[in-house]
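Obj: model holo form, ligand = NAP.
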Amino acid sequence: MSVRVTGSPRPVGLVTGASRGIGLTIARSLAAAGYDLTISARNAAGLADVAADLSTAGAVIRPHRADMAVEQDVTDLAAAHVEAYDRLDVLVMSAGIGYAAPLDTAPLHRFDRQFAVNVRAPYVLVQALLPVMRTTARDHPARGVKIIALSSITGVYAEPALAAYGATKAALASLCRSINAEVSGAGVSATAICPGYVDTDMTAWMREQLDPTSMIATADIAELVMSVTRLSAHAVVPEIVVTRPGEQLHRA
Ligand SMILES: NC(=O)c1ccc[n+]([C@@H]2O[C@H](COP(=O)([O-])OP(=O)(O)OC[C@H]3O[C@@H](n4cnc5c(N)ncnc54)[C@H](OP(=O)(O)O)[C@@H]3O)[C@@H](O)[C@H]2O)c1
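Output (holo structure tokens):
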């Protein structure tokens, strides 16, 4: 019996938070490796510039503006991706926010916003995209489908002043483990990448205390993502912790 292969003939990715930082470097690596992409963030103008830039690698890059704090935006993003490609080989969830504040004074509205963007949105996005990911994994069983979530070392080891952020990142890693428990047998597996400080806009506030050259490079994170995309469907990597060198290995 032959199985009808659906969707785009080329491998396809969806990258959230692709306008800057870690997500941008991952999107660039995927485009260079021959993936067509949907890229997403809130800043439409920034996204359009990135799409134009990455298209020069010969890839089809579709920018889609979405605020991950808005559920309708998240489901619209998933629908637009499926409408455009009907295939999804790699889902990279890099959009994320973090606020530093001590437990005594951290405002609850920031706790809620971090959970909305860092946990609720990935949950909604994965739910909305599971049908197309199952179909893609069925059509391409050797490689299957990879979900990569940008968690954080603060979700693994506690970091002072990052209690809410760390909790969101622990929850995101837990979501990856649940995905593996439920659907890795169908070829859809998830990896939480948990880095310490990476040199991006997000860590600009740290630059006076920590030389950016001693932070992890976005290229290192993209290299890990590309390695995971090349694994067969038989190898599931639930979590990758990336620390900076030195004496404070398990600090951000
Ligand atoms: N940098 C680090 O040290 C570090 C370490 C561990 C984990 N991480 C995680 O890695 C991921 C990427 O971090 P980064 O350092 O690349 O951050 P970044 O430079 O601040 O970039 C964040 C990206 O997410 C998008 N974004 C932010 N809020 C959004 C929202 N509400 N809806 C949609 N998109 C949104 C931003 O675009 P717009 O502003 O245009 O929306 C941007 O593209 C995050 O999940 C972060 O928690 C970062």
